[in-house]
Amino acid sequence: MKNFFLAFSLIFSILLSSACVDKSATGGAPTGDGSGDIKVGVYGDLTGQTSSFGQSTINGIRLAVDEINAAGGVNGRKITLVSEDDQGRPEQATTVVQKLVNQDKVQAILGEVASTNSLAAAPVAQGARIPMITPSSTNPKVTEVGDYISRVCFIDPFQGSTMAKFAAKSLNAKTAAILGDVNSDYSKGLTQFFEQEFTKNGGQVVTKEAYTQNDPDFKAQLTKIRNLNPDVIYVPGYYGQVGIIARQARELGMNMPLLGGDGWDSPELWKLGGESLKNSYISNHYSAENPAPEIQNFVKAYQAKYNVVPDSLAALAYDAAKVLADAIRRAGGTDSAKLKDAINATKDFKGVTGTITLDASRNAIKPAVVLELNPSASKFAFKETIYPEGMSAPADTTSNANTMMNTNQMSNANMMNSNMTNSSTMNSNMMNSAANMNSTMNANK
């Protein structure tokens, strides 16, 4: 009888262990030898102060994966996602990526948005030799963690310099104030590179004021800035604070242009800032107004699935998932070293945020767009495209995700021919653009 119970207990334990296996995969246990489902980890902020970023990111990834799987997967293998919420906290980002690596046994990782969180999690992926692609962390330090870390977005030296050039050339600004998040690697990076480029272009930064993400009020910093009366204010932060900053600035009678980066891009921004966001501009990765077929196909598919226009975080996440799938195909499987090499060799990949080529530091070399905020319509309107040094507009502008002509400008002002392929002619005809194309396009890295 004792032996019977021992045997029964052993069988029960085996059955219980089998029941605890992750059932999200449908094709068997994930492997690195080209068989079974491909298990991909996704992490981001789903419940914290930047939860809009995390939700857009996971939505973009899910749309891409649904399309990939519907088309037969990658080399016949389906992709299964395992998502984790890091609550927007660096320490939690480290914890959830450790779980993805050690417990879930993912073969690749997509995330995060906030550079501080990516910097916290990247060493885990690098140490485990699991390829990690961040869709939208722009701080240069992220990919410096190691050769298993890459990104599909441009980086802060280019983004910061883009807005400095726009301020100096297109807005004719001579003085600027900066109001940034002292605890954010993203904000600190943009502050550094905006100041460098704005000064290089003959401008003067009259003050740099700081806040933290938990600050409820910014009037003290804004009052100091108001007393200096700068031509523009650069706010390299996230939407949760930017909306309040814009509202309080206008309440203080500060009507100068507000400038920012891709961290502003969220549907929540309009709710927080409202009409105070008039006369504001940001650098970003793509424009949903772009008439290029690949852009509009993506926008329509995303809207059909989620009932909202995709922001740049969703578009970058979509591209990151597609780049990963393409790399798995080229690597012939999910062997970590081969997959890492295939990702890093990505070249001329046609994404919705532009043609993606990774450089030696695993950063994407691609143009940026400048968007003007239209709060009455809750939309970002295309203003102009700015290219990194050494890159020029493609001959076929309709096939480039970040090269477009503002259709509203064309209809209202008849300012350009939609078939123009010369980049200098196109930029010189854009509303409020710089007269000199070379100075507009020169974005030193």
Mean pLDDT: 85
Q: Report, as a whole number of angstroms, the end-to-end distance.
A: 76 Å
Q: Which strand-content bin applies to the residues?
A: 15-25%
Total number of beta strands: 14
For the biggest sheet, the summary is: 7 strands, mixed
The radius of gyration is 23 Å
Quick one: CATH class of the largest domain?
A: Alpha Beta
Report the helical percentage.
40-55%
Major beta sheet, strand line-up: 7-6-8-9-10-13-14
Annotation field: number of helices: 15
Q: What's the CATH topology name of the largest domain? A: Rossmann fold
- What is the total number of structural domains? 2
CATH architecture level-2 label of the largest domain: 3-Layer(aba) Sandwich
Low-pLDDT regions? 1-31, 397-401, 403-445
What is the CATH homologous superfamily assignment of the largest domain? Response regulator
Detailed description of the structure:
- Helix 5 crosses helix 6 (185-200).
- It is globular and about 65 Å long.
- Helix content is 42%, strand content 16%.
- A hairpin with a 2-residue loop joins strand 11 and strand 12 (354-356).
- The chain has two domains: 31-154 and 293-356, Rossmann fold (3-Layer(aba) Sandwich), CATH 3.40.50.2300; 157-284 and 368-441, Response regulator (Rossmann fold, 3-Layer(aba) Sandwich).
- With 445 residues, the chain is α/β, with parallel strands linked by helices.
- It is built from 15 helices and 14 strands.
- The strands form three sheets. Strands 7-6-8-9-10-13-14 form a seven-stranded mixed β-sheet, with helices on both faces. The chain has a five-stranded parallel β-sheet with strand order 2-1-3-4-5, sandwiched between helices. A two-stranded antiparallel sheet has the order 11-12.
- The termini are far apart.
- Residues 1-31, 397-401 and 403-445 have low confidence and may be disordered.
- It has helices spanning 2-19, 51-70, 90-102, 115-128, 156-170, 185-200, 219-228, 239-251, 267-273, 293-306, 312-331, 336-344, 407-413, 423-429, 437-441, and strands at 38-44, 79-85, 108-110, 132-134, 149-151, 175-181, 204-211, 232-234, 258-260, 280-284, 349-351, 354-356, 368-374, 379-386.
